[in-house]
Amino acid sequence: MRELTVDLGDRSYPIYFGEGLIQQAGQLFTKHGITSKSPLLIVTDEHVAPHYLSNLESAFAASGYRTASYIVPAGEKSKSLSQLEEIVTVALEAGLDRSSTVIALGGGVVGDLAGFVAASYMRGVKFVQIPTTILAHDSSVGGKVGVNHVLAKNIIGAFHQPEMVLYDLNTLRSLPYREIVAGLSEMIKHGLIWDAEFIAWLDEHTQHLLTLEPEALSYGLYQGCNVKSIVVSRDERENDLRAILNLGHTIGHALEAVSGYNELLHGEAISIGMVGSAKLAVHLGYDASIYHETKRILSKFGLPTQIPTHLNVDQIMNAMMHDKKFKEGSMVFVVPIAIGQVEILKDVSAQLVRQVVMELKEDV
Amino acid sequence: MRELTVDLGDRSYPIYFGEGLIQQAGQLFTKHGITSKSPLLIVTDEHVAPHYLSNLESAFAASGYRTASYIVPAGEKSKSLSQLEEIVTVALEAGLDRSSTVIALGGGVVGDLAGFVAASYMRGVKFVQIPTTILAHDSSVGGKVGVNHVLAKNIIGAFHQPEMVLYDLNTLRSLPYREIVAGLSEMIKHGLIWDAEFIAWLDEHTQHLLTLEPEALSYGLYQGCNVKSIVVSRDERENDLRAILNLGHTIGHALEAVSGYNELLHGEAISIGMVGSAKLAVHLGYDASIYHETKRILSKFGLPTQIPTHLNVDQIMNAMMHDKKFKEGSMVFVVPIAIGQVEILKDVSAQLVRQVVMELKEDV
Ligand SMILES: NC(=O)c1ccc[n+]([C@@H]2O[C@H](COP(=O)([O-])OP(=O)(O)OC[C@H]3O[C@@H](n4cnc5c(N)ncnc54)[C@H](O)[C@@H]3O)[C@@H](O)[C@H]2O)c1
Ligand SMILES: NC(=O)c1ccc[n+]([C@@H]2O[C@H](COP(=O)([O-])OP(=O)(O)OC[C@H]3O[C@@H](n4cnc5c(N)ncnc54)[C@H](O)[C@@H]3O)[C@@H](O)[C@H]2O)c1
Ligand SMILES: [Zn+2]
Ligand SMILES: [Zn+2]
């Protein structure tokens, strides 16, 4: 079992990486002083529940914990205030009190939703994440929780750090292959923004990761969380440094919006976005190898590096301008200046971004 | 203009008490460094808006602030997730960003709702309260914000301290008399739990307060906020001391629940509850004068001191047991041990409480 401490003063917490952690959940809760006097609430989704919910419930029961469970439909739509309201109904009926803990068993959707329940139920109760996707290594560090509004994603939420995170590698075996690949995109991002050695390691272990080889998976998730954790520790409330985590996200979010959130997975969209940022870097005079390396490593993982040809450049530009409310003609952009190093550039010309978007579509 | 600082380290904030503060709102915002680059959002209710909204909007406009406004129906029902969602729609349409401020113009309902919007919009923006009821002197200190769920009041929320509070005494002139009296009940509570001198002052200035004489009103609100502020500063997250603020609330909440939340105002219900606590004190061996004094001062303000005869004792007891999930046969109770001093007793017998409830009904 690997362990990482996310260092946030009196809100610090451990992330455990290992096989079979679900079976040990009850013991780990006891070890961390989580009371069995108050009931626990497990939030999960309909894809995850059939595989792991009853195991988790049994593990808790064996350690003397009472649990209630709630299963949301799979997918982004469940990050809503109406799901929050439903979950609070269940919490009240199960008698959750201020000493209770809310548990997210699932990917980033369940994590964000259950985390916001934990942040707001009785003005805040304990929260534990049991992530079941690779992408959720990203969402399990940083404490951002929340739900969507019809007009904007992640707009209603809080900062609420978990008590701990249990990353049971076995749960990833049931994850669809496309979700595995998309999740690795954020892992590669963590290398690209901070850690050239990690990129070299990812390059060497591509196949081990794609086949979920436990030792490689454990280290990759650990190191991905580690990079995010370092960044978040230095800027918990997103005042400056934390923005580097948005590498690839400006273009990526625009692509998700324009393609209607069903064509591209988030990790796929930001893969294209990261290639775009690397292209931008080269246009701004940085070494051409940044672009070639970024593109090579993402392609090696089977991630897309090109904008689907049917998407419209004007619409993509509009989505970007709207999303971030850029000032006339200039944009804030996270740009790689070497592999493993980025800078936040405050006034990249929108014209240049447009050119990059066009090139990304034509793959030149 | 009086000023009080609520002392919470780097979350400290001022409360201003004075006549005509709404007209000065723009200047006060500028003085406190609130940017005019980002739009403000004013949340108010349909009783308050016709009197004060356009004045407030003009004051902001005169100081170069852009504002959007949203008017909720008056009453407790507006403390809901669906109102939150509506307000977020308005916020997004008005272009509120992370540097924006949400303003509550109204009583405790608007304060709790708008405060939770501020706590959760983009994971937290600035919040300013402009209370328009006397009861809201209580809700403007302590940072508790939130909404109701059909099954439980105030169950979804956050701790979110305001940037400042502008108590414009002029707004209280349009408040219905019954609301004035009910609001004074919480002011008396602040005396009863902490400050015998303040009780003596309240005794002397009863008429001045009931007629909203500005100097008395200003001092009474100031001192009420001051007591709450001292308690909250010592226990911001409600771990122990803060519970003394619940004097009268255990019985009071039960009365509100049993009478269906439309017969008794909150201040009226806790007035009866405070008399109950004083009765309990006497049964526990404390001086009989505690009961007589408590009852006398509340009556002098025209507050009820007796349970309406048609309410059922069993139902009241059930509501109490359910509300606080008391352990078998014993209850936690805030009990006055002198005028201006209370204790939290951990195992008051439910039987004794039942007797007190019966006596409160028969007014013996
Ligand atoms: N809070 C943060 O800091 C943060 C960071 C990144 C992403 N996010 C959020 O995370 C969400 C995306 O996360 P995600 O990609 O994990 O999405 P997800 O939770 O929707 O999971 C993806 C899909 O895989 C299924 N699934 C999950 N685990 C499975 C398993 N073990 N076996 C089989 N199927 C499984 C899910 O049901 C879903 O269909 C977005 O809402 C995004 O906003 C949040
Ligand atoms: N957050 C806290 O710490 C805290 C503390 C105490 C109470 N509260 C909450 O406060 C709420 C009760 O507050 P309240 O008594 O102010 O209720 P309220 O906001 O509903 O106001 C009472 C009534 O007076 C009207 N009104 C308000 N100001 C007026 C004015 N100046 N002129 C004319 N009419 C006016 C309102 O429209 C309403 O009909 C409850 O929801 C309670 O839970 C919160
Ligand atoms: Zn992302
Ligand atoms: Zn009260």
TrEMBL record, chains A, B:
Q: Describe the reaction catalysed, as an equation.
A: 7-phospho-2-dehydro-3-deoxy-D-arabino-heptonate = 3-dehydroquinate + phosphate
EC number(s) given by UniProt: 4.2.3.4
> What one GO molecular function would you report for this record?
3-dehydroquinate synthase activity
What's this protein's function?
A: Catalyzes the conversion of 3-deoxy-D-arabino-heptulosonate 7-phosphate (DAHP) to dehydroquinate (DHQ).
Q: Which gene encodes it?
A: aroB
Which family does the record assign? Belongs to the sugar phosphate cyclases superfamily. Dehydroquinate synthase family.
Task: List where this protein forms a coiled coil.
Answer: none
Q: Which Pfam families does the entry link to?
A: DHQ_synthase, DHQS_C
Q: What is this protein called?
A: 3-dehydroquinate synthase
Against InterPro entries, the record matches this protein to:
Dehydroquinate_synthase, DHQ_synth_AroB, DHQ_synth_fam, DHQS/DOIS_N, DHQS_C
Q: Does the keyword Nucleotide-binding apply?
A: yes
Positions binding Zn(2+) in this chain are 186, 249, 266
Name the NCBIfam families on file: aroB
Q: Keywords for this entry?
A: Amino-acid biosynthesis, Aromatic amino acid biosynthesis, Cobalt, Cytoplasm, Lyase, Metal-binding, NAD, Nucleotide-binding, Zinc
Q: List this protein's GO terms for biological process.
A: amino acid biosynthetic process; aromatic amino acid family biosynthetic process; chorismate biosynthetic process
3-dehydroquinate synthase C-terminal domain residues are 183-325
One cellular component GO annotation, for this chain's record?
A: cytoplasm
The pathway entry for this protein reads as: Metabolic intermediate biosynthesis; chorismate biosynthesis; chorismate from D-erythrose 4-phosphate and phosphoenolpyruvate: step 2/7
Q: Which organism is it from?
A: Paenibacillus selenitireducens
The cofactor binding remark recorded in the entry reads: Binds 1 divalent metal cation per subunit. Can use either Co(2+) or Zn(2+).
Entry's Gene3D superfamilies?
3.40.50.1970, Dehydroquinate synthase-like - alpha domain
Which intervals hold domain 3-dehydroquinate synthase N-terminal? 70-180
Localization per Swiss-Prot or TrEMBL: Cytoplasm
Q: Does the record bear Ribonucleoprotein in its keywords? A: no
